[in-house]
Design a protein that fits this description.
Helices cover about 75% and strands about 0% of the residues. It has 3 helices and no strands. The N and C termini lie far apart (about 50 Å).
């Protein structure tokens, strides 16, 4: 028996999981004691982490495009 799920239902499930994940994260962080002495320390850590993640993604994509991927006729030319 094959069950087919439409794409709009899959996106609905994805969005529900995303909202539940965000709410769970907010709930955990609201009951967790903070180690930052000042509010700006926590904000700086969040911004620093976000920029670090974005840089990892951008650098990885650039390495993949320029070093790992080959042109379509790479094997025909050599």
């Amino acid at each position: 028996m094959e069950v087919k799920i439409e794409q709009k239902h899959l996106f609905g499930i994805l969005y529900v999981c995303l909202v539940v994940s965000i709410l769970a994260g907010l709930l955990v962080h609201s009951h967790e004691p903070t180690h930052a002495a000042f509010v700006w320390q926590a904000v700086f850590s969040a911004i620093y982490g976000f920029i670090g993640c974005v840089l990892i993604i951008v650098v990885s994509k650039e390495i993949g495009h320029h070093w790992l991927q080959k042109e379509e006729d790479y094997y025909e030319r050599h």
